[in-house]
Each structure stands twice: as structure tokens, then as C-alpha cells.
Amino acid sequence: MTGPSTSSPAPGAAAPARSLLDEGLAAFTARDLGAAHAAFERAHRRDPRDARAMSWYGVTLVLVEKNSNLGVTLCDQALRATGPEPELLLNQARVHLALNQRERAVRAILRGLELWPRDASLCMARDTIGIRRPPVIGFLSRNNPLNRFLGRIRHKWQRRHTPLYEMSPLALGFPPAPPEAPPPPAPVPLEVEAAPPAAEPAADPTPSDAPAAEQAEPAASGTAAPAEPGAAEAAPAAPAPTAEAAGAPAAPPEPDEPREVER
To answer: Which tens digit of pLDDT belongs to each residue from 166-211?
Structure first.
């Protein structure tokens, strides 16, 4: 007699559910909760027995629809179906962190670290949520002054060498986003040297000052100014006045020179 048969998903339903699950994970990583919730819901309906689709659908039920009862139930049911896995334990911690249940979130992360102490996602979740570490010296009490002093040094060293994580269900277990590149510096305007101001032309002398300026220039230089070519042709020289015109007695005519008589 054979045992009871368990219903398994149809072969054709696994591939679409997996593709929908990958689509929802990409949207969740990009913090598009609406698209992630729709993809997880379709994946869960395609394959209701898929523990991953069930767990992620429970997470988005709490974050998007604020349905805490059904969301926590689905996350717990996924863990009972497949056993503890880092991804499912982190989803359980995300749900409790969204509901402000920090102690339950810490318990889920510590449960995963006991089984997978070097899992990168669980270690990042531990650094994000700030789980209290054991004392530095194990055989001394936590309140011992030496343990308290060494604990402060360890805390400062971890803060200096551990990247800062965002304390939210969306960022729990994911690497921190790279810092945004600073904006490029504004271009420095080139300083163009201003051209020297053009020399103003000398003011032309007024008509009354023109002859005086022309006479002053030759006297200052010690040389005669060249005569203008049109000045000699402008007015002919006046004839000298005669003695008759002046009223003086006319001079006697000079005697003719003797002529030689031809023989």
C-alpha cells in the first residue's frame, strides 16, 4: 500500500512562477513595492506551495497592504514547509522589523547565524540591526571594567570599518547603496581682459584760435612753416606807388648819352 500522494505543482507552472519571482525581487531591490507586490502575488497564485513566493508575498502584504496577520502567517508557514533558510529567516526578520518587533527580528537573525555564521546577508542584517555582541573576554562578566573598556574600543573600530546600513525592512540584508557621485563642478568663466579704451581724438581748434595755433607752432620749433601752395596764387603783389601819385616833385630826366657820329 502506497502512502498518501502529495500534490505537486504542474511542470508548466514552475517556470512562470520563477520568472515572476525574479521580477518581483528586482522590483523589491529597486524599492518599487507596488510592482514587487503584484509580481509576488501572481507567483504565489501560480504556485501556492512555493516557499519563496509564499514568504516574499507575506513580506509585501505587510509593507504594502498593511495586512500583518496574513503576512506573518505566510512567512512562518514558508519556514515550516522547507526548514530554516537564510532568505526565509531574513524575510521573517523584515516582517517583524516592519511591525516594530525588534526582539523577534533579532531572534530570527541569530537563528540564521547559528546555522550559517558566514552568510553575507545575515551578517549585514546583524550589523544593521545592531545585535549585542558577547563580551571581549568571555570568562569575565560584561560589567567588568576591562570588558567595558575593550568593548568601547571594539565598537569604535567597527563603526570606522563597517559601512553604514539603513535601518529599514527594505534595506535589511542588502548591501548599502553606493554613495552618489558629487555633481560636477560648475565651469569657471574665463576672465577676458578688457581692451584698453581707445584714445579720444584731439579736439579741432576753433576758427578764432586756428591762426594763433599755426603761428605758435613754427615759433616753438624754430623753423618756418611751409607756405601753402594756394596762398601764393590767392592774391597778386600790389605795384609800388609812384612819386606823382604821392604828390612829390618829379625828378629831372637824365640827359641822353652822346651818340657817336659815323664818319
So the answer is: 778 888 888 876 666 667 777 766 666 666 666 666 655 555 555 5
**Distance in angstroms between the alpha carbons of the first and the last residue of the chain:** 201
pTM: 0.57
Secondary structure of 112-139 in HEC code, one letter for each residue: HHHHCCCCHHHHHHHHHHCCCCCCCCCC
**What is the domain class of 12-161 according to CATH?**
mainly alpha
Helices (H), 30-85: 33-46, 51-63, 68-82
Name the residue type at position 145: P
Tens of pLDDT, residues 34-71: 999 999 999 999 999 999 999 999 999 999 999 999 99
3-state secondary structure 202-222: CCCCCCCCHHHHHHHHHHHHC
Phi (first) and psi of residue 118, to 5 degrees? -110, 15
